[in-house]
């Protein structure tokens, strides 16, 4: 199963305290990266949202944007009667001592610190309810986000399966071509050694063939072909695992690319080298898609 790192989901809800909307958007990233954007009056919700998100995905850059519109009673500033009364009593005392004639205007007191409680202060009175409702909307948005990622993951898996099948056929073609070319390549190597070391061959035939065997091991690609086939089998197993293993698939691709690069460095056969070019193109196509997998 594959799950894409790229996805989008949104949800909204209407409650007694107001309306909340959450937008979730994710893109590729090597590590888990969470960004939460909240209005200043709900900045305290960033932590519970982060806690809810961190176990929902393995890697990727996830951005959550929260928008809220509060009910009218929460938008209206409240008058703190106790603070206002204290100000008034103190002013009346000063007014009496100074024997002032002007009356104290009540509206003037409203500008004094602490008399008017701003709407965001009132939100903390219902903080637990706001968190509960916001997380319920978040879960709905996450459900849509995950569904989009699963659908995209299925598309990616379909492409990768088709491409890895092509790569397996290409490795089989390399193996077949090498089986046909192996003896000719070995005879050519022996001929070159004979030209370079004619006297030593006559004196020490055994030493000559030991050297040929050593060189053959350095240009024979049978081990690389065997490992490539083994990597393909492991790649398919990982592709069909119950969880999305994008990082493991990426590591396997690195090993597969290493093997086919080694094949290219060893052989002179024109057909095999062309197969190598095609194989590297296929692996690069797979890698581009795997980098989008969680």
Model description:
Helices cover 65% and strands 14% of the residues. It is an alpha+beta fold and 294 residues long. The strands form 2 sheets. A 4-stranded mixed sheet has the order 1-2-4-3. The mean pLDDT is 84.
Radius of gyration: 36 Å
- Share of helix among residues? 55-70%
Query: Which sequence of strands runs across the widest sheet?
Result: 1-2-4-3
Query: Main beta sheet, described?
Result: 4 strands, mixed
What spatial form do the alpha-carbon principal axes imply?
rod-shaped
Q: Unreliable stretches, pLDDT < 50, 5 or more residues?
A: none
Strand content: 5-15%
Which class do the helix and strand fractions yield?
alpha+beta
Number of helices: 11
* SSE succession: EEEHEHEHHEHHHHHHH
* Count of distinct strands: 6
Q: Residue-averaged pLDDT, rounded?
A: 84
Quaternary state reads single chain
Question: Short description, anyone?
Answer:
The chain has helices at residues 46-53, 72-75, 81-98, 106-109, 119-123, 127-196, 198-203, 205-219, 222-239, 246-266, 270-290, and strands at 7-15, 18-27, 32-37, 60-70, 78-79, 116-117. It is of the alpha+beta class and 294 residues long. The strands form two sheets. A four-stranded mixed beta sheet has the order 1-2-4-3. Strands 5-6 form a two-stranded antiparallel ribbon.
Q: How are the elements arranged and paired?
A:
Blueprint: E1 7-15, E2 18-27, E3 32-37, H1 46-53, E4 60-70, H2 72-75, E5 78-79, H3 81-98, H4 106-109, E6 116-117, H5 119-123, H6 127-196, H7 198-203, H8 205-219, H9 222-239, H10 246-266, H11 270-290
Parallel strand pairs: 3-4
Antiparallel strand pairs: 1-2, 2-4, 5-6
Helix pairs in contact: 6-9, 6-11, 9-10, 10-11
């Amino acid at each position: 199963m594959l799950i894409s790192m790229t996805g989008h989901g949104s949800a909204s809800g209407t409650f007694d305290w107001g309306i909340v909307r959450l937008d979730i958007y994710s893109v590729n990233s090597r590590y888990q990266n969470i960004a939460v954007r909240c209005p200043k009056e709900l900045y305290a919700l960033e932590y519970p949202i982060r806690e809810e998100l961190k176990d929902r995905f393995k890697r990727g850059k996830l951005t959550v944007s929260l928008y809220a519109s509060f009910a009218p009673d929460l938008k209206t500033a409240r008058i703190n009667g106790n603070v206002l009364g204290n100000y008034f009593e103190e002013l009346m005392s000063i007014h009496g001592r100074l024997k002032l004639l002007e009356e104290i205007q009540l509206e003037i007191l409203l500008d004094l610190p602490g008399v008017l409680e701003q709407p965001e202060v009132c939100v903390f009175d219902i903080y637990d309810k706001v968190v509960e409702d916001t997380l319920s909307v978040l879960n709905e948005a996450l459900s849509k986000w995950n569904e989009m990622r699963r659908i995209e993951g299925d598309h990616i898996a379909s492409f990768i399966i088709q491409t890895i099948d092509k790569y397996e056929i290409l490795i089989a073609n390399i193996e077949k071509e090498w089986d046909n070319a192996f003896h000719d390549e070995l005879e050519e190597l022996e001929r070159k050694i004979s030209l370079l070391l004619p006297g030593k061959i006559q004196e020490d035939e055994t030493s000559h063939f030991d050297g040929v065997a050593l060189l053959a091991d350095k240009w024979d690609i049978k081990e690389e072909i065997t490992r490539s086939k083994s990597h393909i089998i492991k790649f398919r197993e990982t592709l069909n695992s119950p969880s999305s293993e994008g990082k493991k698939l990426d590591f396997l691709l690195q090993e597969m690319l290493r093997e086919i690069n080694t094949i290219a460095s060893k052989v002179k056969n024109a057909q095999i080298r062309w197969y190598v070019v095609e194989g590297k193109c296929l692996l690069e196509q797979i890698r581009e898609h795997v980098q989008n997998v969680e």
